[in-house]
Amino acid sequence: MLSLSVATMLLSASAGFVAAQTTADSVPVTDLVGTWSTKSNSTLTGPGFYDPQKDSFIEPKHTGISYSFTADGFFEEAYYRAVANPSNPKCPKGIIQWQHGKFKKLANGTLELTPIEIDGRQLYSDPCAYKNSVYTRYKAKEKFLHYEVIKDPYHQISRLNLFKWDGAPMQPLYLAMSPPTMLPTTTLHQTSTPTPTNSKNKRSEFPFSPSALSKRSPQQLQADRWWWFGVVLTATGGTLYFFF
Ligand SMILES: *[C@@H]1O[C@H](CO)[C@@H](O)[C@H](O)[C@H]1NC(C)=O
Ligand SMILES: *[C@@H]1O[C@H](CO)[C@@H](O)[C@H](O)[C@H]1NC(C)=O
């Protein structure tokens, strides 16, 4: 009996030590807890946006951005964006991105988001140039210089202002749900290869091609590269660090 309780004590002591160690450089984030979304409130994290079983997106009705945060350091993000096409304004490109992972708040207020690398996904559609949407992995570390949670004086709901790495504000996010709506925070995929999917997307702001990613042609790969270039220029998620 005695030895058992000593063992229990030792176990809990070491568990406490580990916990203390991993949180030593981060500070509590209770004000961030919840699911936040841009005004359209139709792009939201969770099972309504990305289906990990089918490995496919459920295209939201309107473009938008959503972030969810938990008190114990997990985040999830959902992006659905249009990229203007200056050479043909009638042909915007659409991008859907999803990733999740861990985040921490540094003592000086900076937020660091580190995704689970094999889980993130992206769907890129350039309907006027390519018949197929391109479905690939997506992983981008993000940093926000600082953030603030305020009561929006006009809408009377909690509002999250995230500031990008250069200090510029992102578009405001409003509290959509608390506690947050998120997929499981653990790793969802065994391998790093996204399964090609064939989702029949409802027609909404962008005509995402229902045809699946098959083999990517050299032109599509080229388009990808240009696309990444565009992301760096138009990134809204703080400073993006690409791993590849
Ligand atoms: C907070 O600290 C990090 C890491 O040292 C640094 O990169 C960042 O610029 C600091 N943020 C602010 C707001 O000073
Ligand atoms: C946003 O959508 C969620 C989920 O549908 C809903 O619970 C919430 O009330 C909405 N928030 C606003 C401000 O409309």
Task: Please describe the structure with a list of short key phrases separated by commas or semicolons.
244 residues, 32% strand, disordered C terminus, disordered N terminus, 14 strands, twelve-stranded antiparallel beta sheet, 2 helices, two-stranded antiparallel ribbon, binds 2-acetamido-2-deoxy-beta-D-glucopyranose, alpha+beta
Structural class: alpha+beta
Rounded to the nearest angstrom, the radius of gyration is 20 Å
Ions, cofactors, ligands: which are bound? 2-acetamido-2-deoxy-beta-D-glucopyranose
Topology as a string of helices (H) and strands (E):
HEEEEEEEEEEEEEHE
**Rough outline:** globular
Low-confidence stretches: 1-23, 197-205, 209-218, 224-244
User: Largest sheet, if any?
Assistant: 12 strands, antiparallel
Helix content range: 10-25%
Structural commentary:
Keywords: Endoplasmic reticulum, Membrane, Signal, Transmembrane, Transmembrane helix. Belongs to the ROT1 family. Its main location: endoplasmic reticulum. The chain has one domain (27-242). Helices cover 16% and strands 32% of the residues. It is built from two helices and 14 strands; from the N terminus they run αβββββββββββββαβ. It has helices at 2-23, 218-234; strands spanning 34-37, 50-51, 56-57, 64-69, 74-83, 93-105, 111-115, 121-125, 134-137, 140-144, 146-151, 158-163, 173-177, 239-242. The strands form two sheets. Strands 1, 4, 5, 6, 7, 8, 9, 10, 11, 12, 13 and 14 form a twelve-stranded antiparallel sheet that branches. A two-stranded antiparallel ribbon has the order 2-3. A hairpin with a 6-residue loop joins β11 and β12 (158-163). It is globular and about 45 Å long. The chain starts with a helix and ends with a strand. The relative contact order is 0.19. The structure holds 2-acetamido-2-deoxy-beta-D-glucopyranose (2 copies). One 2-acetamido-2-deoxy-beta-D-glucopyranose binds at residues 106, 108-110, 145-146.
